[in-house]
């Protein structure tokens, strides 16, 4: 399908940016190539990923996430906050507690409004996290051997504590670990430095997208891994290059609170 007029909403959550579209009549086989073209930062609008909103029989709406390389992700914490803001601010829903169907299951949101009545921040019930190994897993790549904590938050994460993330070569080591054979479907790589018992700093190499300014599921994975290893306590403030996310736990489910921002809206011919 080409030559179609598509309305795009550019949004970001803590700097993790997206182009959001409604599915409409777009065909399934067209979505990956559309994500590649729209997310291109030189020849397209530019984004880490594409959010596709469509009706759901199980929840208030369905969300799909395509990375900038056209691959599909199971879940995106920053993206789902943007979807919540889009739905409410555009009067598609009126409930401040909507549900969203994802490939990782049904997610519940709590929308927080600003003084103008628009969504400012969103709390997401991210569901349970799981340690994928009872022990530290040593992964060897070209740049060396790294002690990692494998975590699932609906998608695979590899958490690595380093002395100083500011001086760490994320762009070189991230893709090596993303493509390690330990991860048959690749993984998101979280490099973190513990600042205090309730604060960590994080940089993420996101599979299919490269280094991003924030990763919601990655922040959840990192916080979970650090609490499980007795390095921090709940709640955990996660400082990302694009902003701050607060990760907490309630009834064994992780919750994530952070901003959702609309940048602009436009119509493109794709």
List its salient traits:
globular; 4 helices; alpha+beta; Diaminopimelate Epimerase, Chain A, domain 1; 46% strand; 2 domains
Biggest sheet character: 19 strands, mixed
Number of structural domains: 2
Provide the β-strand percentage band: over 45%
The 3D shape can be described as globular
Looking at this structure, what is the CATH superfamily of the largest domain? Answer: Diaminopimelate Epimerase, Chain A, domain 1
- Which sequence of SSEs, written as H and E, runs from N to C? EEHEEEHEEEEEEEHEEEHEEEE
| SS elements, strand count | 19
Mean pLDDT: 95
The first-level CATH class name of the largest domain:
Alpha Beta
User: What structural class is derived from the secondary structure elements?
Assistant: alpha+beta
Percent range for helical residues?
10-25%
Q: Give start-end ranges of low-pLDDT stretches.
A: none
Per the CATH scheme, the topology name of the largest domain is Diaminopimelate Epimerase, Chain A, domain 1
Q: Helical element count?
A: 4
CATH architecture of the largest domain: Roll
Query: How far from one another are the termini?
Result: 8 Å
Write the topology of this structure.
Blueprint lengths: L4 E9 L2 E7 L8 H9 L9 E6 L6 E7 L4 E2 L3 H13 L9 E4 L2 E9 L5 E9 L2 E2 L5 E5 L2 E9 L3 E6 L8 H9 L9 E9 L2 E8 L3 E3 L3 H13 L7 E5 L2 E8 L2 E7 L1 E9 L1
Parallel strand pairs: 2-3, 4-6, 12-13, 14-16
Antiparallel strand pairs: 1-2, 1-19, 3-4, 4-5, 6-7, 7-8, 8-18, 9-11, 10-11, 11-12, 13-14, 14-15, 16-17, 17-18
């Amino acid at each position: 399908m080409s030559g179609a007029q598509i309305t795009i909403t550019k949004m970001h959550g803590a700097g993790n940016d997206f182009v959001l579209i409604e599915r409409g009549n777009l065909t399934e086989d067209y979505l990956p190539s559309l994500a590649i073209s729209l997310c291109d930062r030189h020849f397209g609008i530019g984004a880490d990923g594409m959010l596709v909103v469509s009706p759901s029989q199980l929840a208030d709406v369905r969300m799909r996430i395509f990375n900038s390389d056209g691959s599909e992700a199971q879940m995106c914490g920053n993206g789902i906050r943007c979807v919540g803001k889009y739905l409410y601010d555009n009067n598609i829903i009126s409930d401040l507690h909507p549900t969203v169907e994802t490939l990782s299951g049904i997610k519940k949101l709590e929308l927080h409004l600003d003084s103008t009545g628009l969504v400012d921040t969103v709390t997401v019930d991210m569901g349970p996290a799981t340690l994928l190994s009872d022990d530290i897993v040593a992964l060897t790549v070209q740049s060396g051997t790294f002690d990692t904590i494998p975590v699932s938050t609906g998608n695979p994460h590899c958490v690595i504590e380093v002395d100083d993330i500011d001086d760490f070569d994320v762009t070189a080591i991230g893709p090596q670990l993303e493509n390690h054979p330990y991860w048959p479907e690749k993984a998101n790589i979280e490099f973190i430095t513990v600042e205090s018992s309730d604060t960590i700093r994080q940089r993420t190499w996101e599979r299919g997208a490269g280094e991003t300014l924030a990763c919601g599921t990655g922040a959840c994975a990192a916080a979970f891994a650090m609490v499980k290893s007795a390095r921090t306590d709940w709640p955990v403030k996660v400082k990302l290059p694009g902003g701050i996310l607060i990760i907490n736990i309630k009834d064994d489910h992780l919750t994530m609170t952070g901003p959702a921002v609309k940048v602009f809206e436009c119509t493109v011919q794709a």
